């Protein structure tokens, strides 16, 4: 049963003023302080749930997909959610609502995590539970900073609780942020249980494996300050790439050897209801198709954005020709990743594309697409759709075991272990070879959906060596993890900025997005280059 843990939670911390005379001896009756509140384990868990809740609106695809060569903004026209297009083109200004919203969301996660982390050390309830809660909060704080630094650079490092006397937040260096993230994750790894050690009611919480894998991502992202000429010239961050790859190799080995995870036998099942929190799942953002006791939606707000405008959705995050043509036509993953004019059956219903034809002629997209296509991974059957578009019962798959294997392969390559690198890539390819058509791939399958055989499936092992092997590893990541919010970060960390849709604009802004103007003014933050 899915953990219903996305419960918005607000704590009012009352600052006590120092006064003269005997007033200082009076008991402040009726005041709920953070210290008192968090001394109750149920309250501490509620506070932690509020940190998880802050992650639920993470629109991962805006940055990982739309800023890359894998997807277009989409929508009904160029000006539909145009702030996303400006981000894609690196022409946004400091008032951009999309990047400003992301900044605010991630700092909400951080501030709530700080409240938990700073309030719990003196709590007197069960020590193991207390340390686990702190570990989960540190994982989530690290998750937020790991998103902020590649998008905005050296950001304010906020660790103390904000009070009226503490509203300052100078920008830290990139080096300071990475050091902090890695320490938080080391702390989390030390105390978090493995996935199998959680109770069923705690399904979806951060685990030791999730903390290890997030650190893998962070270490790999950090190597970009050596491989990416724009970042290396502007960030002033020195990285020992050999040390990073050694640690990536060791951490992925720990995950592999833990026995907690396996590849799902069929790639197609990962994206269906049966695939949520499955054997391959490292970490998912949990969503539930309902309202909580405050009447607020705790469902997934992004699923409708990627649907067909002729059917139900809003036509955002459209796969490009470049992504589509990366796949072999014999690779079952192609139809489990992309549906459209080349394959137009979705849950047994033949699709039409009249409202999406603009994508073939619009100035923002005509150089990147020749057919209307959509993200199949986050598609929904009609009977599974909630009447409230922003309240869908679909988890966001954040980290999967396939990514662990591909990260291990890349680390093995950099350690000179090419045979091992090929073996781990081929594990992922062999799973693809043995996978099926997506659920309901035959017209008329509108009640008894089945997984039809993919006729002629062929995903042969890679046999390459040297630099060709590295290119094959990167290509495999692109196909396996397509439209999961990862591609842009892979491009910039590997220094292949020529693949970006607007390389010159990326370069002229030092590869960073604008700091929101409100916080620039409030905190006196230096703005990023070009804004």
Task: Describe the fold and architecture.
- With 531 residues, this protein is mostly helical.
- The chain has one domain: Serine Threonine Protein Phosphatase 5, Tetratricopeptide repeat (Alpha Horseshoe), CATH 1.25.40.
- The protein is 40% helix and 5% strand.
- Strand 5 and strand 6 (349-350) form a beta hairpin.
- The longest helix is centred in the first third of the chain and has 26 residues, at 127-152.
- Residues 1-26 have low confidence and may be disordered.
Topology:
Layout: H1 34-37, H2 41-54, H3 60-64, E1 71-74, H4 82-88, H5 97-119, H6 127-152, H7 174-191, H8 208-222, H9 224-227, H10 229-234, H11 241-257, E2 281-285, E3 316-319, H12 321-324, H13 333-337, E4 338-340, E5 345-346, E6 349-350, E7 373-375, E8 396-400, H14 401-414, H15 418-433, H16 466-480, H17 487-493, H18 503-508, H19 517-523
Antiparallel strand pairs: 1-3, 2-8, 4-7, 5-6
Helix pairs in contact: 2-5, 2-6, 5-6, 6-7, 6-8, 7-8, 8-11, 11-14, 14-15, 14-16, 15-16
């Amino acid at each position: 049963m899915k953990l219903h843990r996305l419960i918005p939670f607000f704590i009012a911390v009352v600052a006590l003023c120092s006064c003269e005379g005997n007033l200082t001896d009076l008991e402040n009756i009726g005041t709920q302080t953070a210290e008192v509140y968090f001394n109750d384990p149920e309250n501490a868990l509620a506070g932690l749930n509020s940190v998880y809740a802050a992650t639920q609106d993470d629109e991962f695809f805006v940055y990982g997909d739309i800023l890359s060569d894998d997807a277009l903004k989409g929508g009904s026209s160029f000006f539909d959610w145009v702030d996303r297009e400006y981000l894609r083109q690196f022409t946004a200004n400091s008032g951009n609502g999309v990047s400003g919203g992301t900044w605010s969301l991630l700092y909400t996660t951080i501030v709530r995590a700080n409240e938990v982390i700073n309030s719990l050390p003196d709590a007197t309830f069960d020590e193991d539970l207390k340390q686990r809660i702190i570990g989960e909060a540190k994982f989530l704080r690290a998750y937020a900073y790991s998103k902020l630094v590649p998008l905005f650079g050296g950001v304010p490092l906020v660790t103390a609780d904000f009070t009226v006397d503490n509203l300052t937040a100078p920008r830290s260096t990139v080096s300071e942020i990475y050091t902090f993230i890695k320490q938080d994750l080391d702390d989390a790894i030390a105390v978090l249980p493995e996935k199998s050690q959680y109770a069923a009611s705690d399904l979806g919480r951060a685990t030791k494996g999730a903390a290890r894998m997030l650190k893998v991502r962070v270490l790999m992202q950090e190597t970009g300050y050596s491989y990416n000429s724009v970042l290396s010239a502007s960030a002033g961050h020195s990285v020992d790439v050999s040390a990073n790859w050694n640690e990536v190799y060791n951490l992925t080995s720990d995950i592999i050897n833990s026995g907690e995870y396996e590849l799902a036998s069929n790639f197609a099942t990962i994206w269906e209801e049966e695939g949520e929190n499955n054997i391959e799942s490292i970490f998912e953002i949990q969503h539930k198709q309902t309202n909580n006791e405050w009447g607020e939606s705790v469902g997934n707000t992004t699923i409708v954005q990627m649907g067909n405008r002729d059917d139900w959705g809003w036509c955002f995050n459209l796969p490009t020709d470049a992504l589509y043509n990366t796949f072999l036509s014999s690779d079952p993953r192609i139809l489990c990743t992309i549906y459209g004019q080349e394959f137009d059956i979705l849950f047994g219903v033949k699709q039409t594309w009249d409202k999406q034809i603009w994508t073939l002629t619009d100035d923002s997209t005509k150089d990147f697409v020749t057919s209307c296509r959509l993200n199949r991974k986050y598609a929904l059957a009609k009977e599974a759709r909630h009447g409230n578009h922003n309240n869908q019962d679909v988890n966001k798959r954040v980290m999967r075991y396939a990514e662990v294997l591909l990260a291990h392969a890349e680390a093995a390559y950099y350690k000179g272990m090419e045979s091992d690198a090929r073996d781990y890539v081929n594990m992922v390819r062999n799973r693809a070879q043995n996978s099926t058509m997506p659920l309901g791939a035959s017209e008329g399958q509108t009640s008894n959906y089945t997984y039809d055989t993919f006729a002629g499936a062929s995903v042969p092992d890679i046999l390459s060596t040297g630099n060709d092997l590295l290119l094959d590893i990167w290509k495999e990541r692109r196909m396996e993890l397509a439209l999961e919010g990862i591609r842009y970060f892979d491009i910039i960390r590997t220094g292949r900025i020529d693949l970006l849709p607007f390389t010159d604009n990326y370069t002229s802004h030092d590869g960073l997005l604008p700091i929101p103007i409100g916080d620039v003014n409030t905190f006196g933050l230096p703005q990023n280059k070009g804004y």
